[in-house]
Each structure stands twice: as structure tokens, then as C-alpha cells.
């Protein structure tokens, strides 16, 4: 399995960023890491190994990107600065990583995927940019970071603004009315997977309901148990990517 390492100074983030690429052709997948994890963790957790057959066969090419969660959602910054840093991260993905993918891979489609907070990153960016992404797979993800759960805090401590609204799928998706955007979303291959005992199940159910209400087809799979660990994600990527 071909493996390549990339590192460059990101102007938008004002710091060096790293990523790993597995494979040389096929559907390119930008794979986001879990909360505060890094570009190499999916390889260390054998999630990449679980995709090896598809990668080696040229079905998919996987771009494992790094995160800046410790500088955004999980930083000590004020809530308004947290979301701004997150938006800078998305700008890095759209304006630096996506062009790299396009230079290396001439496939007409592009996918986003992620587990846990990485699933949030994938689904959030894909639903906002269906002109760029054609497929998204969110595994064990949370789609409203403003809501307190039993073991998970409101990451903005009650603060809410327009930037936060447009980065929380469970807030902006139910209110999508633009016909062009709805048409683009309707063509996207959307998959959400979560465990029956996962704290994020209600978030997934709400997003699935909202997508149905606006007429956007998708797949929604509920696994037994919590299913919020690498050993489950290794099985999920085989089925849904």
C-alpha cells in the first residue's frame, strides 16, 4: 500500500500542518481524526489497515489530515474565538488540502469521512459544500456541540452566534430552503453510523430526521452497543467507504 507524508506551512492557520496519504488512485477521501487526535492516529489504530484492500485495489485514496481541536473547540479561548479558529481550519481544508487532492488525483468525486469529532468535521464541511464533496461518512459523531450531554459539555459555555449556527448541522440543516443547495445535497451520498448506546445517538436521530424533512436522502445505521471505539470503526470503514 502506497504511503506518502506531506508537511507545509499553512498561511491560513499560521502554523505547520501534516498529513498522510494512502493509495495512489480511486475515490479520494479526506479523513478527519477524532477529538484532539492527529493525522497518524488512524494508522496507529489500524483503521487504515481495515481499508487496505480497497486502497490497494485503487478503489479509494485516503488523506488522513491533522486537527487543531486543541486550538479551537478544546482550547481555553473565548467561545467566539473557538469558532473562528475552527473556521480557519475549514479554510485550510478547502483552500490547501482540497487543491492538493485535486493535483494528485483526477477522480471527479471527493469524499469526507471521520469518527467521533472527526465525523462532525466531515459531515459539517460536506453539508456546507456539496459543490465540493460528493460523499460523506460520519461515524459515532456529534452534530451539535452547543448541547450539554451526560459526559460531554457545551463547548461554547452557552455562547451562541451566527458563526456557531452555521457550523452546527443540527441547527442549520432543518432551515435549508435554497433549491440549488437542496439539489446538490440530494445528489450527495450521505451515511451516518452510530451505536445504540452512544451518547450521540439522539444527535444522529435529529440530523437524520432533519434531512428527511428537507427531502435529502441518506443512510442512517444504528449499531449495537456503544460502537464508539477503533475496533468498531475498523468494521464501519469496510462497509461504508
3D structure, described in words:
Strand 5, helix 5 and strand 6 (135-139) form a beta-alpha-beta unit. The chain has an eight-stranded mixed beta sheet with strand order 1-2-4-3-5-6-7-8, with helices on both faces. It has one domain: Rossmann fold (3-Layer(aba) Sandwich). With 241 residues, the chain is of the alpha/beta class. 39% of the residues are buried. The radius of gyration is 17 Å and the shape is globular. The model has no long low-confidence stretch (mean pLDDT 97). The chain has helices at 41-44, 47-50, 52-56, 79-104, 117-128, 162-165, 169-172, 179-186, 201-213, 230-240, and strands at residues 3-10, 15-22, 27-32, 60-65, 111-115, 135-139, 189-195, 219-223.
Query: What is the name of the CATH architecture?
Result: 3-Layer(aba) Sandwich
How many discrete domains?
1
Tell me the number of strands.
8
Enumerate the strands of the largest sheet in spatial order, edge to edge or round the barrel. 1-2-4-3-5-6-7-8
Quaternary structure annotation: single chain
Text of the CATH class? Alpha Beta
Organism: Dyadobacter psychrotolerans
Protein name: Esterase
InterPro entries: AB_hydrolase_fold, Esterase-like, Mycobacterial_A85_antigen
Pfam family, one: Esterase
Could you provide a short overview of the structure?
The protein has 241 residues and is α/β, with parallel strands linked by helices. It is built from ten helices and eight strands.
Summary keywords:
241 residues; alpha/beta; Rossmann fold; 38% helix; 21% strand; AB_hydrolase_fold
Q: What topology does this entry show?
A:
Layout (H helix, E strand, L loop, with lengths): L2 E8 L4 E8 L4 E6 L8 H4 L2 H4 L1 H5 L3 E6 L13 H26 L6 E5 L1 H12 L6 E5 L22 H4 L3 H4 L6 H8 L2 E7 L5 H13 L5 E5 L6 H11 L1
Parallel strand pairs: 3-4, 3-5, 5-6, 6-7, 7-8
Antiparallel strand pairs: 1-2, 2-4
Amino acid at each position: 500500500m502506497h504511503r506518502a507524508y506531506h508537511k507545509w506551512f499553512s498561511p491560513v492557520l499560521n502554523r505547520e500542518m501534516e498529513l498522510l496519504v494512502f493509495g495512489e488512485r480511486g475515490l479520494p477521501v479526506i479523513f478527519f481524526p477524532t477529538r484532539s487526535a492527529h493525522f497518524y492516529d488512524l494508522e496507529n489504530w489500524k483503521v487504515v489497515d481495515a481499508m487496505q484492500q480497497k486502497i490497494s485495489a485503487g478503489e479509494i485514496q485516503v488523506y488522513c489530515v491533522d486537527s487543531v481541536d486543541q486550538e479551537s473547540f478544546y482550547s481555553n479561548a473565548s467561545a467566539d474565538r473557538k469558532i473562528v479558529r475552527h473556521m480557519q481550519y475549514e479554510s485550510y481544508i478547502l483552500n490547501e488540502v482540497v487543491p492538493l487532492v485535486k493535483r494528485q488525483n483526477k477522480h471527479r468525486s471527493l469524499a469526507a469521512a471521520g469518527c467521533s469529532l472527526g465525523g462532525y468535521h466531515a459531515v459539517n464541511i460536506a453539508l456546507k459544500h456539496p459543490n465540493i464533496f460528493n460523499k460523506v461518512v460520519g461515524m459515532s459523531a456529534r452534530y451539535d456541540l452547543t448541547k450539554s450531554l451526560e459526559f460531554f459539555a457545551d463547548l461554547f459555555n452557552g455562547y451562541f452566534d451566527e458563526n456557531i449556527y452555521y457550523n452546527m448541522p443540527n441547527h442549520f440543516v432543518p432551515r435549508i430552503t435554497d433549491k440549488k443547495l437542496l439539489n446538490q445535497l440530494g445528489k450527495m451520498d450521505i451515511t451516518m453510523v452510530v451505536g445504540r448506546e452512544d451518547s450521540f445517538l439522539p444527535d444522529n436521530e435529529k440530523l437524520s430526521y432533519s434531512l428527511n424533512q428537507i427531502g435529502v436522502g441518506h443512510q442512517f445505521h444504528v449499531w449495537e452497543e456503544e460502537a464508539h471505539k477503533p475496533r468498531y470503526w475498523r468494521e464501519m470503514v469496510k462497509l461504508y467507504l
